[in-house]
Amino acid sequence: MGEMSGDDEPLTPAGRLFQQPQMNQVIHCVIGLKNPIDVDLIKNEIQKSVMLQHPRFTSLMVRDHRGVEHWRPTKIDFDSHFLVIHHPVSEDDESAISEYMSDLCTVSQLSMDKPLWEIHILIVHKCIIFRIHHSLGDGISLMSMLLAGCRKLQDPQALPSISIPNIKPRRTFSNILVTLFFSFIFLIQFILRCLWIRDRKTAISGGSGVDLWPRKIATATFSLEHMKTVKASVPNA
Q1: Is-contact 2 9, C-beta < 8 A?
Q2: pTM across the whole model
Q3: Is residue 36 very low, low, confident or very high in pLDDT (cuts 50, 70, 90)?
Q4: Which chain regions cross the lipid bilayer (predicted)?
Q5: How confident is the model at residue 59 (pLDDT cuts 50, 70, 90)?
Q6: Please, which pLDDT band fits residue 173 given cuts at 50, 70 and 90?
Q7: Domain count, the chain
Q8: Which helix (H) or strand (E) holds 72?
Q9: CA–CA separation, 226 and 228 (whole Å)
């Protein structure tokens, strides 16, 4: 709790939703590297990146006397956002990352005493884990920021580009009617599900406090050939 400052900015409705105890969503982004990790180089690049130019990544989340959340600009302690793990977490990389991520998802919460992001570096496993609270941005804005910090392999000075198929949807009266009809149906289903419909109990239904039960991350490996097969089967993919 604290008094309002002139530089404070209120959270968006979506940001406030992600801050609720029932939600409290944290995004975990795992990046595996081929070469050994140079921690000082990574810190230097992030300090120069567009990420720290974003006001959300240099602001504290504070609440006023009414409990309303606001962003408050602050001077960050850069090193406090990095956690470097030098010892192996497990024998092989995949199980080590899964085990470490499971612990992060169930035990470790982001500290409210600093901006809501962290970077964990697993030296032995050549892995970097970004932890970003979802109230800092939605998926599109965060992915755009990530791409803005990347460069092309063949041209280190050029930003990556994404090809977008030039498809113009046909707007006809019948298409509009179909869209309105299904929108109405989905709205009714949503209202009914919120008010009356409940998932039936089964043998695998969780009991009371299931949201607090320990979690385990399972991974699956897909070959590049399988990905190419899927891509070739989907039009305009």
Answers
A1: no
A2: 0.71
A3: very high
A4: 173-192
A5: very high
A6: confident
A7: 1
A8: strand 69-73
A9: 5
